[in-house]
Give the backbone structure.
Amino acid sequence: MTGGTAQRLAGIELGGTKTIVVLGDGTRIVERREFPTTTPDETMGAALAVLGEWNRAAPLDAIGIGSFGPLRVDAQAADFGTILATPKRGWSGAQILAPVRRAFACPIGVDTDVNAAALAEHALGAAQGCGNVIYLTIGTGLGGGVLLDGRPVHGAMHPEIGHVRLRRVAGDAFAGVCPFHGDCIEGLIAGPALEARLPAHPADLDPVDPAWDPVGMDLAELLAQLMLTFSPQRIVIGGGVANRQPHLIARARDALPGLIAGYLGDMDAAALSRMICAPTLGDDAGPVGSLVLAAQAMG
Amino acid sequence: MTGGTAQRLAGIELGGTKTIVVLGDGTRIVERREFPTTTPDETMGAALAVLGEWNRAAPLDAIGIGSFGPLRVDAQAADFGTILATPKRGWSGAQILAPVRRAFACPIGVDTDVNAAALAEHALGAAQGCGNVIYLTIGTGLGGGVLLDGRPVHGAMHPEIGHVRLRRVAGDAFAGVCPFHGDCIEGLIAGPALEARLPAHPADLDPVDPAWDPVGMDLAELLAQLMLTFSPQRIVIGGGVANRQPHLIARARDALPGLIAGYLGDMDAAALSRMICAPTLGDDAGPVGSLVLAAQAMG
């Protein structure tokens, strides 16, 4: 745009525990509402009420939705924009896109919350200028969004990076806490896993405590695998665990050259610090991402 | 094209042990020459001589090159089309694209041999109609090409799927044979690994011998990981080991539902048989892929 008024965009970040609805002057957040994610009807109803209010003040140009998954992201599928089978009670089969479409005639974009966050960091944050980008969130769960040539990866479903099985550290017998897979990476290093695994609450444990060693190695195994498969220029790591325990990222960075063993070319500390970083947009990566989805829906 | 003459295309499949040069009526191979891959000068010289001969008979419209890697595939890089550091003697830094460019003014496409094979199966073979495609070759080495939305994945380098570290089967102590990583997946299930690991030569070992069990499980771990990260609609598996030991793919398919544990939705035997399959083009996937690269270079 060359001057003039930015688009009036709105976004919904539908998270597993809370939902954030934002109004954007373009992709700049100018107003925000937050509420707990409860039942689908109640939660989508609350989001629609906020959008309706903003739309009455001045018509919205487009709406973006970044949702927790698993979510049908194939626009050709009959159940596009629907939550797939999930252990989250009441949400299997919940329609996310359809109620917004019924209420608003403007363009509407929808993708996973982590793809939205990746788009935000790509457009405005730590991954600007990078085509292949991974956004990881390590919090209550572990999820990953992936952009290749700047576009979100979908496919048969969408990546479920949190549930990969990785090589375990020799001698580490922690069984993991994932109800599906036990010791997949989410079952090893997301919040509930750390509470079960560490000798003290993560917040109370000294960052140099050796109990962190296998946690850092597990994260390094994930990063090595992602580097070998997606060939990313940037891996942005957000989420509560990553924000509160930045030493884990440092530990993983230190272990990576040993794991990659010279195979991917230059892999010195400076290159790894550039490649693996925190989100510039912080906790706003998700909500800003929903505005980026809105902007992209306008074509 | 609606009638008329197809493009006169040529392709080079530069393999680790042999090189195949093909002439295409469009992407249909009408002539082929094969010779061993020796030094860069000798090998590229032989390929250029064949191309020159065909070009004199009638001008080539475009040329495609599918090369073993690691290869610089970033068209913006100064060393685009150059082999990167490789244990293959004499080939580190070898220019693949430059000598062809010097000799021919027509459009020239270049990518990895496995991305080329993936493009061929996508255009003409087992992955038609699928956006997200993985082409694995399991032979002397293990390599993978990846298409997302039909386009090859590049990024910081390109995927190096053969060198991921996966969860080992409990009790399996085989150390692996990869000179970089020991028991990465190439070090566990490519040809040289099987010769070191099995109690008899792979060709002489009964397909039902339990010594194959951990090999099939290792392949299943790779496929599970690829499904969770790339969300492919199709995984096409070629290469000498896969061709000669189809029971390995059957074993891996059988193990997958247990590994994925219901996480990716429908994963019954019929769905897995469709998703994981042999290349329709067989050993021609690579050479045909070089012709697809040529066609795409014409824009």
Observations:
- The domain at 8-116+283-297 of chain A is CATH 3.30.420.40 (Nucleotidyltransferase; domain 5).
- DSSP finds ten helices and ten strands in chain A.
- The mean pLDDT of chain A is 94.
